[in-house]
Amino acid sequence: ASRAAPMRTRTTCGYCGVGCSLEVLTRNGEITAVLPDHDGPVNRGHACVKGRFAHGFVASPDRLTRPLLRRDGRLEPVSWAEALEHVARGMRTAVAEGGPDAVAAISSARATNEENYLIQKFMRVVIGTNNVDNCSRLCHAPSAAGLTASFGLAGGTDLFEDAERADCLLVVGANPAEAHPVVGARLLQRVLRGAGLIVIDPRAVGLARYADTHLRPRPGTNVALFHGLAHVLLAEGLTDQEFLREHAIGLPELTELLAAYPPERAAAITGVTADGLVAAARLYGRAERPAIFYGLGVTEHLHGTDGVRALANLAILRGAVGPGIGYGVNPLRGQNNVQGASDMGALPDALPGYQKLGDPAARARAAAVWGVPVPARPGLRIPEMFAAARSGVLRALWVIGEDVCATDPDADRVAEALDSCPLVVCNELFLSETAGRADVVFPVASWLEKDGTFVNFDRRFQRVRPALDPPGEARPDFAVVHALAAELGVDLGCRTPADALAECGRIAPVFAGLTHERLDREGAVPWPCTDAGAPGEGRLYRERFATPDGLAHLASPPYLPPGEEPDHSYPLVLVTGRRWAHYNSGSMTRRTDDLRLDTVDLLDLHPADATRLGLRDGDPVVVESRHGRAELVARLTEETSPGQAFCAFHFPSSGVNTLTSSHSDTVTACPEYKVTAVRVSPA
Ligand code: SF4
């Protein structure tokens, strides 16, 4: 007998920000295969191990299928009606006792654009507060702030296709071979076809072995390194004077600052060689079409926004952004929809489309659509929410699809915040570390079970379509937000995800030309897209920059040291990041049999340090910082520089984020995950 043909559903990968198009094959409600889409605009028939194989979690027996409510200290299954009524009552009490700002929500980079739009609308319309943020706070908030200050808008400057025309790639603080594998492969392809490659990263990341120059700065010294490179560009005449005259401002101030960063001094601060630094500057400066790609190694620092701006300086000096050559400055976004969560206004200081709350016209536009005034006072950022909970000011916190107890820094303090807050609500797939501390847990749909759109790292909107029904009573976040609003007596309108995106476009002109119908027809469209009849803008700045004066702004921040330095007690510098087969807290990849390749978090150590510590490969180790303690397994590798250590945070039981500090970017409060002083000893 012949078996029925599988159902085929085209959707967008829910792991990293590359945004690969996938075809999901299902039969009888089960996934039989996930294939890369040959017409995918970014992946063109490719996908990495996560996109292809990390789908077993959807059928995990650990999936939450009923709402949970804490009674007598234990989470027990209850009906949706009871869970919603409990949360609505708790939120009403919080507002009655502390005003609207006593309630906050952490929205989700895992959720669709439409869900993020609805969540921020819920907080502003139903509760009356701007206390809404998303995990870009923990990764690329410095990119949004830095790129906006330098160029005018918060997105990467160019489409990825431009990189394929670049003749020099500068890859900084990123490990695309593991964290963005499809992009990593395409960058490598470009290099193998002749483009120059400069890698700046403390670790010997995968691309580094193909680099013309690999600079390995001490973690926390990026600003000095970028200034050293800029010094060489200026000193050797590798700048575009015409571009600078017509399109940039701030050159005299920067020239004065850069006098203090000759290669020898920059080398002394950063630990790279002066010769290497000069070689890198010449390669970038002499290229005709240089492109910059960077990751969290630039942003997750005490001076992350300064790092983004100092990096942007290089492209401006070279005339390699915007109306110049236009190969740009492009952040590699981590989570699948971290760009979209911010685009949709799940931010405490901005409405959809990055319209500042301080702009009365933007508030009036939103108020006209929503039918209520929009509060003007900026809300709390994620670290401030935790501080407010610890101090008793915040009385209700809704955490949507983020395991903050596993992934946020100084995790013991995060747990303390949740334990101090009278009402903690989670939307989750599994009983995560965070959900385990909640008062109410709503079971929700995964990315394979929902309808909407994501925005990938180069600003492309793409459709997300359900290949499966969610298990049991689990619902999409979109439905949960609607249901809670209704319980609080408010109809949020926009009944479908398509309606929500259309409504967002009425508030944010940069999305006005985007609809589900159009995306179904065209596949992918980048923003800005102000008109349904016009294509989206791949290159953000064709004629002028989007700053008020239309100019690119060179920045002159001095180098300042990181929040903490190694010393006699904590002699190693720990850097955290991802490994290729797992994803963030690992809640999905750990529950996928095909990916049980690592089963613990490993601590990469240089063999010289391991010898000194009496450690061999595979030994269990204790890692201690000034903030906490974790238990890991040693992996000896020369990928890590002497004096440094590296680990991921895919296994919450190892407690990696109890080690990381609460130092954060002075502009955006993005945590300094990339510099923690630690000591290591045998377990
Ligand atoms: Fe998914 Fe990223 Fe892998 Fe593409 S590269 S399949 S988007 S995890």
Task: Describe the protein's topology.
Blueprint: E1 7-12, E2 21-27, E3 30-36, H1 49-53, E4 68-71, E5 74-77, H2 80-98, E6 103-106, H3 113-127, E7 132-133, H4 141-151, H5 160-163, E8 168-172, H6 176-179, H7 181-192, E9 196-200, E10 213-215, H8 222-235, H9 241-247, E11 248-249, H10 251-258, H11 263-270, H12 274-286, E12 290-294, H13 296-299, H14 304-318, E13 329-331, H15 338-343, E14 350-351, E15 355-356, H16 360-370, H17 382-390, E16 396-400, H18 404-407, H19 411-420, E17 423-428, E18 440-443, E19 452-455, E20 460-464, H20 477-487, H21 497-507, H22 516-522, E21 524-526, E22 552-553, E23 572-577, E24 602-605, H23 607-613, E25 620-625, E26 629-636, E27 644-648, H24 656-659, E28 676-682
Parallel strand pairs: 6-7, 6-16, 8-9, 8-12, 9-10, 11-22, 12-13, 16-17, 17-18, 23-27, 24-26
Antiparallel strand pairs: 1-2, 2-3, 4-5, 4-18, 14-15, 19-20, 20-21, 23-28, 24-27, 25-26, 25-28
Helix pairs in contact: 2-20, 3-20, 3-21, 4-14, 8-11, 8-12, 8-14, 11-12, 17-19
This protein binds iron/sulfur cluster.
Iron/sulfur cluster binds at residues 13, 15-16, 18-20, 43, 47-48, 50-51, 180-182.
Strand residues, percent: 15-25%
Shape: globular
How many whole angstroms does the radius of gyration measure? 24 Å
CATH topology descriptor of the largest domain: Rossmann fold
What is the average per-residue confidence, as pLDDT, rounded to a whole number? 93
Q: Largest beta sheet, briefly? A: 7 strands, mixed
Total number of strands: 28
Low-confidence stretches: none
